[in-house]
Write a structure and sequence with these properties.
Elements (H helix, E strand, L loop, with lengths): L3 E10 L2 E8 L5 E4 L3 H8 L4 E5 L6 H10 L9 E2 L2 E2 L10 H13 L4 H12 L5 E4 H4 L6 H7 L18 H25 L1 H14 L11 H14 L6 H6 L6 E3 L13 H11 L2 E3 L15 E4 L2 E4 L6 E2 L4 E4 L7 E6 L2 H8 L9 H18 L5 H13 L14 H24 L4 E5 L2 E4 L6 H15 L3 E13 L2 E6 L4 E4 L15 H12 L3 H8 L10 E4 L4 E6 L3 H6 L8 E3 L2 E6 L6 E6 L4 E9 L1 E3 L14 H14 L3
Parallel strand pairs: 1-4, 4-7
Antiparallel strand pairs: 1-2, 2-3, 5-6, 8-9, 10-11, 11-12, 13-17, 14-16, 14-17, 15-16, 17-18, 18-19, 20-23, 21-22, 21-24, 23-26, 24-25
Helix pairs in contact: 2-4, 8-14, 9-13, 9-14, 12-15, 13-14, 15-16, 17-18, 17-20
Length: 646
């Protein structure tokens, strides 16, 4: 029998505690204050699975604290660290819970408080829980996610924390809490279920407890699986392996360059020699390699390439390319699974582990290749891809048993030098390279160049024992190396940076701008034609700009010019204080604008695209407003098109 899944959130004030739960399946709500009903229905119910946002670090902790300090709780409670209940019970009331909440949020704890939080965080609990923020990490705040999800009601906490609430204010908090729960439920149903299913698959395949994976981000899941498999038979836990890692203060770059890296031209041969004579330090605080010395600008042909501690990238100017029927091509040659392939090619593994780690990694890679070729094993192929691709970042984390900064630099530097080998060979054949970034090279060979292009790529694969995959574009438009849109010859669109469509991982302001610009750049439409083509698909969400302020700033709605604001000649009564998170569209009937005030310099700061606005934090009608200022949006679209060299 499956557990009852409830999305939930807590709101805590000195005189009010509220726990709001929503049935994932039905959408029904339950609300609890402190008392036995909350204990019996939720906290002590093994048939309940709670789903929240950042709940592992906050909401679950408060629930566990309530369970620990209830009148019928035994004096000793077991947890992940053994018997951990060694602080006295406290009287449970909203004020006590609020004080604990403030300590968690602000980090203001003494020894007793720290022990209370540890007790609540690490105890064994009867209910199970999933933390969507941890699962989807990296994630912004729930408010920013509401913007990204195009949620109907974007609302900040309406009453300042610490307020003694009136009866009416308690009702306002109930409404607000339900809105947050609805947003979390939407995040679950529309964006998280496939991730939860992948974690379940990984748990089953590798025979590891689902409790350790169901809220794990992709890097954490990959680390947990590989670490536990590789540590089998060593009589050491991953934690013990991490603790025994020797301190590293510097990296000898010669140790990071494999013998198969070689160049044909004097300038790149000199670059290779210079690198081999180099050493770079490790930051003693962060554990990261300090890669300043690796930041080299390399010129091949008439194009510059920037090296660094991360991946290689070309220095690209705005440009618009079109393949033609008379023999010009645009070909993107990407290295298949570049970083994993470098690890596998040379049998590399983190320094805390043996060759067994590399053998397990190879097996995962082989299993994925097999699963990828079988349509019935799509979930497995994607799950195994997580392990291969998400592991790499842990080499740079001193909190991981995989910590190995030399290995990290070895992989990234090998990747950069490998691409430079390919670029050098293409340019020596007279084939123009127009862009390169991390794991791929885009070039523009003609029909006459194709024999040489294929020969160069085949030889590179033989020399490096790596594989190339090719994408042919009919059009490519870019603002720079990290912001482009391209149309493949089989009519698929590839986007990066400014052109990435809205999703929960990316902030996209007024999506109409990139959407119409993309249509014009890839299909040779005019702005007016593109708007006409897409008009039936558009809604108010396509036109919304947004902004989320930090704690250091307040947001104001007003009718003043920037000069008036900065001169501080304001009758304060005409300023409307807004919440920290807002969204709006540009209107031809409005004179209102947004500004923020505060920060380190305590001054007024303009907010981009926030003049002549209509606020749209709550949306009940998705139709395009009749007062929308189309000319404003058209000017932004035209500006983006021109920025891409068209």
């Amino acid at each position: 029998m499956s557990k009852l899944q409830l999305v939930y959130d807590l709101e805590v004030y000195p005189n009010y505690f509220l726990a709001t739960f929503c049935d994932v399946e039905t959408g029904d709500f339950w609300e609890y204050e402190l008392g036995d009903k909350l204990l019996n229905d939720i906290i002590r119910n093994p048939e309940v699975e709670l789903i929240g946002f950042n709940n592992h670090h906050y909401d679950d902790v408060l629930l566990n604290f309530i369970g620990q300090h209830s009148h019928d709780t035994p004096e000793v409670i077991t947890g992940g660290w053994g018997n951990i209940m060694d602080t006295p019970k406290v009287e449970l009331d909203p004020k006590t819970i609020f004080e604990l909440s403030e300590r968690i949020i602000n980090g203001t704890v003494n020894t007793i408080h720290e022990q209370q939080i540890k007790n609540a965080k690490y105890q064994d609990k009867e209910y199970s829980s999933i933390d969507l923020k941890a699962l989807l990490d990296p994630m912004p705040s729930l408010k920013k996610l509401e913007l990204r999800m195009q949620f109907t009601n974007v609302q900040d906490l309406p009453i300042k924390p610490g307020t003694i609430l009136t009866t009416e204010q308690k009702q306002d908090i109930k409404i607000y809490c339900r809105n947050d729960v609805n947003a979390t439920r939407e995040l679950l149903l529309k964006h998280s279920l496939k991730h939860i299913e992948l974690r379940k698959f990984l748990s089953t395949k590798f025979k590891l407890p689902i409790s350790q994976l169901q809220s794990a981000s992709e890097p954490r899941a990959a680390e947990y699986i590989l670490a536990n498999l590789a540590a089998e038979g060593t009589k050491k836990t991953p934690w013990k392996i991490k603790e025994e890692l020797a301190h590293i203060s510097s990296i000898i770059i010669q140790d990071c360059i494999p013998p198969w890296i070689s160049f044909k031209t004097p300038n790149l041969q000199q670059l290779l020699q210079d690198l081999k004579e180099m050493g770079i330090p490790i930051n003693n605080t962060t554990g990261y390699a300090i890669g300043t010395l690796l930041k080299k600008l390399v010129t091949i042909g008439d194009k510059d390439y920037q090296m660094g501690i991360g991946g290689l990238h070309s220095v690209d100017q705005p440009a618009h390319y079109t393949a033609s029927a008379n023999g010009s091509h645009i070909i993107d040659a990407d290295v298949t699974s570049y970083y994993p392939s470098i690890l596998l090619r040379d049998g590399l593994h983190p320094r805390g582990y043996s060759r067994k780690w590399a053998e397990i990694y190879q097996q995962v890679y082989d299993d994925r290749i097999e699963a990828k070729s079988d349509p019935s094993r799509t979930t497995e192929a994607h799950a195994l891809k997580i392990i291969l691709n998400a592991t790499f970042g842990k080499f740079g984390s001193q909190y991981s048993s995989f910590y190995d900064p030399t290995l990290l630099v070895r992989v990234t530097l090998t990747g950069q030098l490998g691409l430079l080998m390919l670029i050098e060979s293409l340019e020596l054949e007279g084939i123009k390279v127009i862009s390169a970034n991390t794991d791929g090279v885009v070039s523009t060979p003609t029909d006459a160049d194709m024999e040489a292009f294929n020969r160069v790529c085949t030889q590179w694969e033989a020399d490096t024992k790596l594989n190339l995959e090719y994408t042919h574009y009919s059009r490519l438009a870019r603002r720079d190396v990290n912001n482009y849109t391209a149309l493949t010859t089989n009519n698929k669109v590839k986007n990066k940076g400014l052109f990435t469509p809205p999703d929960i991982k990316h902030d996209v302001k007024a999506p109409i701008i990139q959407r119409i610009a993309r249509q014009c750049l890839l299909y040779n439409s005019t702005v007016e034609e593109a708007i006409q083509e897409l008009h039936e698909e558009l809604s108010i969400y396509d036109f919304l700009f947004s902004f989320g302020a930090t704690k250091a700033f307040n947001i104001y709605l007003h009718n003043y010019t920037n000069a008036q604001l900065k001169a501080a000649i304001l009758p304060q009564v005409n300023l409307t204080t807004l919440s920290k998170t807002n969204r709006w569209y540009i209107s031809h009937n409005s004179t209102q604008r947004l500004s923020k005030y505060g920060g380190k310099n305590v001054n007024w700061v303009s907010i981009p695209d926030a003049e002549n606005i209509i606020l749209m934090n709550q949306i009940t009608n998705e139709n395009i407003p009749t007062d929308l200022n189309w000319d404003y949006y058209k000017s932004k679209i035209t500006k983006l098109i021109k920025a891409c060299g068209a």
